[in-house]
Amino acid sequence: MHILLINPPNCGRSIPEERYGITSLKQIFRGEPLALEELAGNLMEHTVRILDLKADPDGLDRELREFQPELVGITGVTCEANTMLRLAARVKDSCPATVVVGGIHASNDPGFFNHPVVDYIVVGIGKKVFAELVCALESGNENDEKCTDLPGVIRTSPGRQVARPQLRNRIADLVMERPPAYDLVQRYRSHYILEKLGITMGFVASAFGCPHQCLFCSIQGQTGGDYLTKSIETVIRDISLLPEIPVIRLVDANTFGDVTRATALGHALLASGLGKQYLADIRSDTVVRHPEMLRQWKEAGLRAVIIGFEGIDDASLSAMNKANQATMNAEAISILNDLEITIVGDFIISPGYDENDFDRLDTYLGARQIDLPMITVMTPLPGTALFRQEQHRISNHNLDYYTLTNAVTPTKLEERRFYSRYAELLVNSHHNARL
């Protein structure tokens, strides 16, 4: 079967840019489409192409005309969901292909894609079940139970409600024996660079899900709350498949969620002789409780960690169900500074921020050595606990604006002032940013 897998173009919209001419807040999603590379790696019996519209925004018509796919798979995050439907409509207008959507938004809010231009929705990791769906369709079983009974697969029925299926979150779903098809994006490699820093970066997944339950996080929709890890041998293999890439971004929500396994992985990376540098996500309490593990990872090539500090006091952390303390964040910063590991620190500002709140965060960032603060706006993403809590307050339902840099609930400050303070905060905090 001819299968085309599509990564949407950059499509998130920006309220501060459109209404107030503030251009510094708009985020651009970059990096290779690893989810599609993983899917393609389990479709070796088929002819597969990956179309990355972030790198080739005008490529869809050409691919549909030249490749003539029989099945098209489209992935995306929440701010890309509307565009995913538009892409599906263009596919249906151009060819008789079966259209399947998946990804993090489909996993959290599958009903959004219960639309005539979509045939199937895949919820969860999808690597195993997507290949099973392809097999069933190729056998001509589109209308029988072999498709509709697949765990995590929904046959669309526009006009009727669809139920979110139970996920089959077994380690087998990672299909570790089939590596990502990195070769399918080779033509785009020159685009996967952090331009401001001149860093060429490749993506590798070593774990899926997270053992914690932060209020705002959408990761649970992918794994049903489970924390699944790839074998150490599989991670080393996947990294070795990117021999010319000097920096590897481990794209896990929490690379160190299982400390015993993470320690063993650090030892294996050190012994591998791969000579890479790594960026990985970690919680601040893990840093504080296991500094010896970080020392070993530093020796293995750990260049930077991404930490979700989120708030600057215990009250804000508790409100997010972060299960952490401000003192723990401060101690983690000190430990990482001593180890000379770069800190990419995530912070979340609330639409309810007033002038004093912005001042406090500005002072906090100015007093601490956080190399690259990343500041987003608290956004109730569909499917999350935060969405269920805040749904009645949402004033902007257009998912194009769910980029984490727009307030989709009312701001306490006058809106222009809120975004002006947000922009000033980013400028101040990024003054000496480095990675």
Plain-language structure description:
Helix 15 (355-366) links the parallel strand 14 (342-349) and strand 15. Helix content is 35%, strand content 16%. The strands form 3 sheets. The chain has a 7-stranded mixed sheet. It has a 6-stranded mixed sheet with strand order 2-1-3-4-5-6, with helices on both faces. A two-stranded antiparallel ribbon has the order 9-10. Helix 9 packs across helix 10, helix 10 (259-272) runs parallel beside helix 12 (291-300) and helix 15 (355-366) packs parallel to helix 17 (415-429). With 435 residues, the protein is an alpha/beta fold. It starts with a strand and ends in a 6-residue tail after the last helix. It has helices at 15-20, 34-41, 60-67, 81-94, 104-108, 127-138, 145-148, 220-223, 232-240, 259-272, 284-289, 291-300, 314-319, 326-339, 355-366, 385-390, 415-429; strands at 2-7, 47-52, 71-74, 98-101, 120-122, 153-155, 193-194, 199-204, 207-208, 228-229, 247-250, 277-281, 302-310, 342-349, 372-377. The protein has 17 helices and 15 strands. The chain has 2 domains: 2-171, Cobalamin-binding domain (Rossmann fold, 3-Layer(aba) Sandwich), CATH 3.40.50.280; 192-429, Alpha-Beta Barrel (TIM Barrel). The model has no long low-confidence stretch (mean pLDDT 92).
